[in-house]
Amino acid sequence: MAMAAFSMALFVPVFYARDLGLSLGVVTVILLLARWTDLLTDPLIGFLSDRTRSQWGRRKPWILAGAPIMLLAVIQLFTPRGEVTAPRLALWTAVLWLGWTMVSIPYYAWGAELSCNYHRRTRIATWRTLSNATGVLIALSLPLASAKLFDYGGELREALTIVAVVAVTTGGVAFTWLLTRVAEPAPLEVRRVTALEGLRFMWRNGPFKRLLLAFTLAAVGPAMAAPVFFFYLTQVIEAEVPVSLPLLVFYSGHLLGVAVWGALAERIGKRSAWMTAMWLMVLCQPWFLSLGPGDLVPMLVILFVAGASAGSLVGLPCAMKADVIDLDRLASGADRTAVFFSSWSLAQKAVASLALALSLTLLALFDFQPGGGNGPIQIWALKVSFAGIPTLCYAAALLVIRPYPLTEERHRHVLRQLAARSA
Asked: Is there a smaller number of Cβ atoms within 10 Å at the N or the C end of the chain?
């Protein structure tokens, strides 16, 4: 899944705009609108998955239905045949994200349900996030290695073909293994609640709201930096290197960071580990503002540290989300794990879309030229989009999460109350 998502973000827009002749503006609008379909599908799939009752469980039927849809769309988007048109790109992008939602919402909910243990949840989320980072590294490095060894993979079309073949082949095996070998826990609920009643319980869940706001603020940083990363590399650093090189450095640090923050969380708690990572991000990000032409090595060093810090942005939040869902289960008596994950996913996607628009709009306001020839004001606007505003968002996230109350001790108390009620 990570191979597909990363390639959609990095390779597909350039491939369709530069190599296949579609307008960059049209491609951007299609990709953004396709993600906004999640406004409907995310909460719907979350609600239906929690309500599903079958001999295979609640999560497996949705993953079984969504995985073929997602993998078929990967083939159609990454290896297009015949005439490529805007409607075709829109169709298969929408199909991809529909299949993705059908898989990802039940999948993350299932992961949260594998254990109620405070630290075991961190381990589960850490291993899953390590797999995610590994998938990104494969999508980056495999085409480079293939181009070096077999002279195939240097072109964008070739790179996407390699990623599609590997993602679909390994995805078929992985999904089959998941569905046939991993047991799905039974629902832990004493009653069902209506959608409106469930929203009221969610709104009263203070730790969930604080957690959602903090991690949404933190997500603004990567969402603003990603679309202008290429401009920063070429027009601030003025480096003539493949864009995959600094990305490999970033995701190598990310892979290390996931393991470090997961291990640290078991010693000092999830909130404290995440705050440590965010402090490191706040301290290292402003250094991007001071770099200029020829500072490739310092940039790579900062990227590695930032990647290690960003390793806390996925695994720890998933483990902490599972804890706050236990509070909802205690208050409502219902098991609504997928609804909570769909709400979280929806907020993250909405903010990511808005952050992307903010980043590019800021450059447009200062008349930034993508092709080059920008003055000091335009370059400063680029630096602010890439590092300045993200740093402020990380700092704001720290302030929000600091009073987060759900410690390991309090979570044990919640589990004891749930066990007493079940008994």
From this structure: C
